[in-house]
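[step 3/7] fold_predict: job queued, chain A
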Amino acid sequence: MRRNILQWFVCAVFCSVLAVSCAGTRMSQTWVDEARRGKPVADVLVIVIADKTKNREAFEHKFVQQLKAAGVEAVSSADVIPMPRDLKLEKDVILQAVDKYGNDAVIISHLTGLDKKEVFTRTGPIYGGYYNYYGYTFEAVQDPGFYSEIATVRLETNLYDVKTEQLLWSGQSQSEDVQSINKLIDEVIALVIKDLQKNKLLPTQS
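[step 4/7] structure written:
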């Protein structure tokens, strides 16, 4: 009986509007199958669910690069599975890729939340009368830099065993004050790999 991989997928939209730096990324929550701890996977198919092909490809390629640097064989779904127009991968093509490349695990990553808030920068006390304060504050408020926007991005990454379809590990990351999608992706992947190595689901290099 063919493995049902479609249940791994959820609808999500990946962030694509960021530009310069990221203040900090952390794993906010992780879970591991204790029965599989200490039994590392060796060959991973990486799938990223995104609203744009370029975002999917960029994320997956970075993931594959870091996995290989950690001593794990990996392949990007973007390189081995043609993406249909509706961006939804079908069960049969995923199974074909898994069988062809001999993957023993699948990693799926997607956006779970994107929050944006506007920050108002207050001025300090201005002396010399109310109109001095009014004039200074008026000019400051008109400055586009007086108000700023802070983005918080939450991603979920899951590791599945191909044969059993069991969830081996799940992690939720949270990135504060995000302004660079590339830096965000690098940080999230590094944290995911570090936690997988800690739980001995990926081999550790000597």
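[step 5/7] annotate
Residues 1-23 have pLDDT under 50 and may be disordered.
The beta strands are 22-32, 43-49, 73-76, 105-120, 147-161, 167-178.
exit 0
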